[in-house]
Amino acid sequence: MARDYVSVLDSLNVDYEVVGRGKDSSTAFEVATGRTVLTGGITRAIGNGIVPDRAIVAVGVEELAEVAYELLDAGVTRLLLEKPGGLCSEELVKIRGRASSAEVIVAYNRRHYMSTSTARQIISDDGGVRSFFFEVTEWPNATEPEQVKSSVRQRWFLAQSSHVVDLAFHLGGHPINWASWNGGSLPWHPESSRFAGAGITNTGATFGFHGDWEAPGRWGLEVMTRSRRIIFRPLETLQVMSIGSLEVVPVPIDDQIDRDFKPGLYEQTRSFLLEEDGVACTL
């Protein structure tokens, strides 16, 4: 993710410094991006007097909270923290508590997809969301994510599946009354492998969700208005089914920016820097 942010920041002509940890990873980063890395980690950087007003945290999931704590304690006032922000709700609560007057944004970049922006306009035109359904099946067939640590694999729903969960509730409202069920297990995720639930949000929209990590499937989201069914599958694209018809029609999207950079990242970063992010996920 850090390399993706460099591409965006360079395109925006922003002055910034990169702080890394180990020498080997920092050297590889420098070779890939052409950017000099200050090694030794955030503790050393702060000790050397490097405390910016704004910071972007793009480290491993298991390290997000600790880096956020240090930056906030040092006086950073605006923080863009890679999703999901921490490994558990306790870490997120601590971040919020230590933020004081600082603003912390969790970088759920799918809120900034051009498909999402287009869907928000359709939803507004149609008078709001009446109901929605999302699928949290991991693909392909929940192959063990060996590239991350065991502590992260065991919290994979939060670390990974929460991307689509966040997008669904961003569009449909916050859940206020709901129930959920789970079953099954995987060797690397013993708590469960099947998920289901339903409820209602603060906007009055009803919702349901399902996921089976031991069966074929993929992330998906369907949002219903009075006039249209808005389909995200994959999430970067948009299709609609209009009332009175069974035809599913692709929606034209001006998504060149999501093709040039990691989808959603350019607009998310630009909005963060300009302090005009009205759709951000804040703590």
List the helices and strands and how they pair.
Layout: H1 2-11, E1 18-19, H2 23-33, E2 37-38, H3 41-47, E3 54-57, H4 64-74, E4 78-82, H5 89-99, E5 103-107, H6 114-126, E6 131-135, H7 150-153, H8 156-172, E7 175-183, E8 194-201, E9 206-212, E10 220-224, E11 228-232, E12 239-242, E13 248-250, H9 256-260, H10 265-274, E14 281-282
Parallel strand pairs: 1-2, 3-4, 4-5, 6-9
Antiparallel strand pairs: 5-14, 6-10, 7-8, 8-9, 10-11, 11-12, 12-13
Helix pairs in contact: 1-10, 4-5
General description of the model:
This is Gfo/Idh/MocA-like oxidoreductase N-terminal domain-containing protein. It comes from marine metagenome. The chain has 283 residues and is of the alpha/beta class. The protein folds into two domains: 128 residues, NAD(P)-binding Rossmann-like Domain (Rossmann fold), CATH 3.40.50; 141 residues, Dihydrodipicolinate Reductase, domain 2 (2-Layer Sandwich), CATH 3.30.360. It has ten helices and 14 strands. It has an eight-stranded mixed beta sheet, with helices on one face. Strands 3-4-5-14 form a four-stranded mixed beta sheet, sandwiched between helices. The longest helix is centred in the middle third of the chain and has 17 residues. The chain is globular, with a radius of gyration of 20 Å. The mean pLDDT is 92.
